[in-house]
Amino acid sequence: MIKYVFIVLYANDNGDGGTFALYSLISRYAKVSLIPNQQAEDAMVSNYGLDIVSAPMRRAQWMKKRLENSEVAKVAIFLLTILGTSMVISDGVLTPAISVLSAVSGLQQKAPQLKQDYFKRNGKDAWISLGGILLCFTGTEAMFADLGHFNVRAVQTSFSFVLFPAVSLAYIGQAAFLRKHPEHVLDTFYRSIPGPMFWPTFIIAVAAAIIASQAMISGAFSIIQQSQTLGCFPRVKVVHTSKLYEGQVYIPEVNFVLGLLCVIITLAFQTTTDIGHAYGICVTSVMIITTILMVIVMLLIWRVSIWLIIPFCLAYGFVEFVYLSAVLYKFTEGGYLPIVIATVMVVMMGVWHYVHVKKYWYELEHIVTNESMRQLIQTHGVKRIPGVGFLYTELVQGISPIFPHLIEKIPFVHSVLMFVSIKHLPIPHVEVSERFLFRNVESKTSRMFRCVARYGYSDKLEGAKEFAASLIEGLQSHIEEGHFITDMQIQETEAQTASTGDGDARPRKAGSSTVYVEEVLTAGETTVLTQPRLSSYSAHSSGRISEEQTRTIAEEKQFIQRELQKGVIYILGETEIKAGPDSSFVKKIVVNYMYSFLRKNFRQGEKAFAIPRQQVLKVGMVYEI
């Protein structure tokens, strides 16, 4: 209770808990992500920064550099995260089975004799039985994973003043009963209940088992959604079940698999004994992983004194490893089950993320710059056709190699072309007003744009129609701001050149207005940020330019609106990933077979983005990584 309720809960990621929440929290403070899609503009998102405890900076900076410069550390943190996630998913399989079997075990009335003066009399067997004690506090990890459904204060209050006293009284009562009736050790709970209260208690116990199972399954849904949005899990259908609480999700495919596995495990084991062994390994492993990640959070983010971190590691690390050693002793008696499930999940998530990272690096190494775009358009005599085209790409820098491949086959592009990247930041939510980041491609008059649509890992993706409407609305705002900035830059250059006579740009104040402008070049593209460089313009000149500017903006907005009415086409890259001819045998197996199997058996892009099939144009291409 002390570890989770009063320490770990404070390591939530804007209200979300679980292993992936810890990973995303660490990713925000150090570049430990294996995908190089970090942008300076991301730090401007209001939910990105967190209040941190003021403490020594030198140790935090040292930790940050070590994590960012070590590929081994990055991979180790990632593997720990997906291992913890896999164990929680295993927990989601085992919880329903053991909870329901425990509840209905009241129907059995058999029990062996109870031995007494415990550790001294039983020695090794007493140590092994520590695994059973884990069942008294297994819900704490689930509580952290389900944090998105409640706030920290509500969990702390209910856990400390309702749940903990109630559970403690229940165990104390059973212990008192066993002192008089030691022979009823295997069904103490039901034996200790007065006869008339048996059936009401039985019904409540089954209901409680269902609630506990649902909580764990919901936690599995949440972390799978988080892992999917961070590129660590194949695409699945995510259904948001509440309009008020965005963190409440349902995943049909995962629910079916969990249900099937629960039935198989219940039929195979039939009693809680062997399932308990499996359950103990599962829960203790997640607790140890949480402890390790918490140490990183304390060092890097909270920056607390090392003399507080050491007792935390020694106290909880020692206790959890002792429990793990006890439950591992029962590996062959059911303990292997979560290891098998977790291994399958780790392999699946690891393969998917490995190829995902390699694919991103391939596209990054083959990006199309603005100069290449001009040459490409001139060489192929590209013509513009009516309508708006959205070309989806994972790149947030430059243009994907899918585009020149498309132009080589079909030298036509839409009158308005948008290169759209769906990017998930390592935070739960991104405000709608901060969602889109626009850039011009090729030139101001080309009507080609880049848009990075930024989401948190708990945000819901809109349907195709709603997304297109939001995108066009954001584009029109970008056009207004873009023309304004362009006019100011022209005036600034003219004013500065005239004042110095030699083209030397020196900021000065003129007239009655002051503008802050900074231009940043990224992979051949231009974006406007709000970090200032002082520039100025005369009030007299601004009036004349303003009329022209207003007219131009209105014409551009009307043009885009007309093209939108002519139709929208979604262009998706249908990339086939293959291992290069010089790749190792293992890499060929991973890329050509394992990844290919996952990709073919999970959702494709148009289904994940809810795009109407009649509006999809797919471009096939082979990547050799």
Automatic annotation (TrEMBL):
It comes from the Eukaryota. It comes from Panicum hallii var. hallii. Belongs to the HAK/KUP transporter (TC 2.A.72.3) family. Coiled coil: none annotated. It is found in: Membrane. InterPro entries: K+_transporter, K_trans_C, K_trans_N. The chain crosses the membrane at residues 72-89, 126-147, 159-177, 197-217, 254-272, 278-301, 308-329, 335-355. The keyword Ion transport applies. Keywords: Ion transport, Membrane, Potassium, Potassium transport, Transmembrane, Transmembrane helix, Transport. This is Potassium transporter.
